[in-house]
Amino acid sequence: xxxxxxxxxxxxxxxDLLHFYRQMLLIRRFEExxxxxxxxxxxxxxxxxxxxxxAVVVGLEAAAEEGDKRVTSYRDHGxxxxxxxxxxxxxxxxxxxxxxxxKGKGGSMHMFSKEKHFxxxxxxxxxxxxxxxxxxxxxKYKGTxxxxxxxxGDGAANQGQVAETYNMAQLWELPVVFVIENNQYAMGTSxxxxxxxxxxxxxxxxxxxxxxxxxxxxxxxxxxxxxxxVAHCRAGKGPYILEVMTYRYRGHSMSDPxxxxxxxxxxxxxxxxxxxxxxRELLLQGxxxxxxxxxxxxxxxxxxxxxxxxxxxxxxxxxxxxxxTDIYAEEAxxxx
Amino acid sequence: xxxxxxxxxxxPTMEEGTLAKWLxxxxxxxxxxxxxxxxxxxxxxxxxxxxxxGVLGKILIAEGTEGVKxxxxxxxxxEEGEDVDAAVAEAExxxxxxxxxxxxxxxxxxAKAPAKPASAPAAPRSNASPDWAxxxxxxxxxxxxxxxxxxxxxxxxxxxxxLMGEEVAEYEGAYKISQGLLDEFGAKRVIDTPITExxxxxxxxxxxxxxxxPIVEFMTFNFAMQAIDxxxxxxxxxxxxxxxxxxAPMVFRGPNGAAARVGAQxxxxxxxxxxxxxxxxxxxxxxxxxxKGLLKTAIRDPNPVIFLENEILYGRSFEVPKLDxxxxxxxxxxxxxxxxxxxxxxxxxxxxxxxxxxxxxTEDGIEAEVIDLRTLRPIDYDTVLASVMKTNRxxxxxxxxxxGAIGNHLGATIMQRAFDYLDAPVINCTxxxxxxxxxANLEKLALVTTDDVVAxxxxxxxx
Lengths: 336, 463
Hints:
Chain A is of the alpha/beta class and 336 residues long. Chain A is built from eleven helices and eight strands. The radius of gyration of chain A is 19 Å and the shape is globular. In chain B, strands 11-10-12-13-15-14-20 form a seven-stranded mixed sheet, sandwiched between helices. Chain B has a five-stranded mixed sheet with strand order 17-19-18-21-22, with helices on both faces. Classes of the chains: A alpha/beta (336), B alpha/beta (463).
């Protein structure tokens, strides 16, 4: 991976490290539980797990401020948890229940939170990219200095609308951070089988957009790059591209036989580059936490996830009358 | 040998124009490519070049003359040294035979085109005017002006309303709908986009999620196919997918359907496509008052609205009420004329054929009731059903393809809800089931016509 490593880790506070550890662990345990519930038939349809990529969104959320917006693809559970959405509401949406974020009508790929400025949850590869630029346009129009994080994968990076969006975002100097989560496989197609231009962030240069690649298995490096990108956008200098080199441990979706890569490749990443293990080591080596303290955090996270799972099973299915609601708005939606 | 210079057609739908200014005077030498006059169409002022060389012998149409029909001789070009009067007399005498032979190509094709705009009469007046109080002061206005006024009024009313699209700002609109808006509202609110429909439609959807009220102008709805994923998957479905948390309050507007001789890729009527999608609203005005009232309603609507205009109708004039804030509600059809023998249901440009047919049918003693749906989502079923229950017969008229047409849906609805009232099967008059041909005669055959409607009415009335 040709990506930047964390230069100095010593200046990261104990609180930050613990926060990252907690957040990444929450995502991983949540996703593992979602995988279990899928196996039990409680979650249906498509379910795309974020396991392995936790450092990307946790690092970038650490660079965000209140009021900043985010929008992503269908692999969205991690983004929702990282921006502070309630695990219960997310899990209940996965099980298609009335207490889910979309009342059970959206599912794994389609959740939103006005309160947390999370704009989905989009199921069409690449469609969220111009939407993210549009959210940024709304902030520029209103004269705020808020920034929109627009996440998409290496697969979406080859979509035409991404190129269209780069062009307009730079032309109009929109405050949008394009985050390419390069997990190296677009479903089953590796980057090298999809393009002869594999350094996705460099494509921004064609439009005059600055960017860089960053090690996405290192949450501190992601945060630092995120802060730089956000500062660029907030200063009114237009968009910025971060290509975050990451890896998904699980299949593309639950029904992925994963014939396109070897078990050894996955195993090697897990053993050598795991983002959670990395922070765990930093915490222990820096004597910021003891093994017992980390075990206590593990236990706490497990209970949050178990509660969410219980909640998602107990929440009733939507009332049949909900079939016919939310098709049309009666009055103007409140500003988010 | 003298040649007549003819009034040129400067756009596919131009029928007449104003001879704004002569840049050459009688007796001036003219070379091919010289700009000899300025001609004002309803969209723009265009320079008109000479195609031959010679001397401008005589000016036949004085500058400032309005309403000069395409192909009218406007001047006579003579050869150098030729006796002007004799040459002019000769040219005028032989005008029928010679006409068009040296005219610029566009004029020639327009002259021969049997396209419907050339033969279209002035829009008939409505019998019923339910949208304003009796005695309201009216003013004559084109559909184009009505659309512009609607946008300007709504932009004054709500600072979150903005317009974006190709050529909407500095060029003032490919069809001049947005003329003057950049001057009044500035570049922040009237945004020229690159040619990038998929991208800018997605940007507009994001802006709507972010609390703004975008109006997206498609230069024509044909180009919106590039962006249909964003329209359907992002704009129409998000309110439902978010459990009512957020949606896309915005308007997608632009000309839809056939113009004149622009071929298969630029002539598609998308009414039925968009009308199929829950989460969208679809408006398709015929008259200027509906264009204005429905567009204002569309801009205020908290949902994504597809607003289907028609290039041929842009230049048509209708009476529009002079009211401070005139809106037309969605889901309310307009009865243009009442009748007892048959119900003709149409919308958009189809109304032209429906109304013309109704006029002609009176000669055969048939009184048709003509209904303009005005919005296709929601559809005002009640007005249609009540009328069919009265007349017992129904003909639908639309420009789109016959399979999966709005008329199919109306026919099915009438069958389900008014079967016992029907004295004849419902007939759908539609465009033909072919891509739009370019050749003038074939295009005419492909479009729905007033004759089609008259024939269908005879069929359902058995007389």
